[in-house]
Amino acid sequence: MTTPHDIKRGVSLYSYQYETFLRRMTLDDCIAHAASLGARGIEVVSEQSFTGFPDVPQAQIDGWFDSLERHGAYAQCHDMFLDVKLYKDRKLNFEEMVTSLKRDLRFAKRLGCRNVRVIVNTPPEVVVACVPLAEELDVRMGIEVHSPFHFDHPWILRYTELTRATGSDHVGYVPDMGMYTKNYPPVFRDRFLRLGATPKIVEYILEAHAARVLADYVLMDVRKLGGNAVDLQMAETLRHNIWSNPRRMLEFMPWIFNIHAKFYEIDDSGREPAIPYEEIIPVLIEGGYQGHLSSEYEGQRHIEDAFEVDGREQVRRQQDMFKRLLGEA
Amino acid sequence: MYDQHIIYPGSVRNTDDGAGWQFGARLPYYRGQILSAVEDIAITVDGEKIAREQVRFTVRGRTFTLDELETEYVERWEFGEVAQVSVLRPGGLPAGEHQVTAAVQLRISYLPWSPVTSCTTGATIAPAHA
Questions:
Q1: Partners of B122 in the β-ladder
Q2: Where is the Xylose isomerase-like TIM barrel domain (chain A) (predicted)?
């Protein structure tokens, strides 16, 4: 018996970035591939899939809609960025940041996306200032809760306090499953070994990650052990690959609009060795999550130096895993 | 990211006007960037570091010095787009084998540091036609 749920499947086109970069896949190819897996909710990093942002020519937008319709897919989420360091000598001021996010809300509307992934460095006050426009456009803003941040991190707590006070149902979260890195990703380990990490120190870092030792302490230890630059680089990754408890999402579920189903690889057994989806998906079902699981393949950058990247095969494997865990298969 | 793809394969050549040499370059990042975010494109040829002032960047018909890039807030280097990076050096590179390195430094707003991504490739410059 499968527990009933209303979780939808989708793909972030970020997953096919390697093939897109090398012009081996067009925007239409990406949408066609996702839709062929039944992952019909399309999430897009707009500055990757369109040119001329934010003034994307209408022909590209028309092509986007044509492609979605032809393949039976739909626009789900627009991923925005806040270029706070646009100017070398100063950060954007409050008004400039608000203008930038408003621009993205309008762009999401133009793309037909109901959700915007708000990048985690966006100050919560900026999000609050955009609530009236978000409501008017009916576009929801979800802060990306991305490792090293997590739901109990002070920056996210502050976001929660300020956005919750608005009473708006157009503000919430887009958790990135990278904050549930239970096991150190094998693709990271192997790449650091290829780059010249010291095998004994690699073992030490893996044990420290498994024991949840504070990253700063691991770095100090690796220095004391005489670690080389690559060893230190590997130790640094512990800062950004945290494990927190997926059950913390239960409390936030009414405000979770979208899930970034980050993954580094799906191995031959059909599992993600680092991020335990077999633990995460039951939490989403239990919490009554109604949004998308959006595949976000990020392994390409960790294997491109030594292996052929195949984003399509990796997304296919993750979607098969979703079908299994969601009771579709 | 995309380290090995920064220098477009087979693109290292002397410029037609004899003013220097150039190659096609792709942005080593997962989204297009406004040019002001490009802090540096450091070039080395056969172990020799090229002075920043000798480098030019051309995208969609517009050419910039690296200093000019820093205040360009409209024009972009799109994702996967091949721009031209030129080195001013009369006569260009001598015919034969060369080793070229391009290191691109980007100011990424949500990162506390500015990552540098580097690509090295061997290139053959054909003898000039008589």
A1: B99
A2: 32-324
Q: Do the Cβ atoms of A259 and A291 come closer than 8 Å? A: yes
DSSP H helices in chain A: 17-21, 27-36, 46-49, 58-71, 94-111, 124-129, 131-137, 154-164, 186-195, 199-210, 215-224, 229-236, 277-286, 300-303, 311-326
Distance from the Cα of A120 to chain B's closest Cα (Å) equals: 8
CATH class entry, domain B3-124: mainly beta
Identify the H or E element spanning B67: helix B66-69
Quote the CA–CA distance of A291 and A113 in Å, as a whole number. 13
A305: closest chain B residue by CA: B4
Contact B110 A121 (CB under 8 A): yes
Domains observed in chain A: 8-184+241-326 (3.20.20.150), 187-236 (no CATH)
pLDDT of residue A141: 98
Residue with structure tokens 């040019």?
A: B35
pTM of the full structure = 0.96
For residue B31, give the nearest of B71, B82, B76 by alpha carbon.
B76
Beta-bridge partner residues of A21: none
pLDDT at residue B129 tops 80: no
Q: Is the pLDDT of residue A163 over 90?
A: yes
Q: Which residues of A touch B70 (CB under 8 A)?
A: 88
Distance of CA A133 to the CA centre of its chain: 24
